[in-house]
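Bumping with the actual sequence this time:
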Amino acid sequence: MKHSAQGSQDLRYAVWRKSKFSADQGNCIEVADGFRDIMPVRDSKNPQDPALVFTADAWSAFVACVRAGALPLA
């Protein structure tokens, strides 16, 4: 499985994780750490589907907005 942000990124051997704050209901996203310039994100209910690949800067900005409460979560 290859996905692209800037060039081709091979995610076959990515190690995926969920947040420690995730409940056991299966409505989670998973992220794959260990990539220098990108943050792959996928749906835990459908891990076989393509991942979304964000630049590291875009992912950091998104996480900062969530932490600050700047985005509606409903």
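The tokens above came from a reply further down the thread. The two ends are 31 Å apart (CA to CA).
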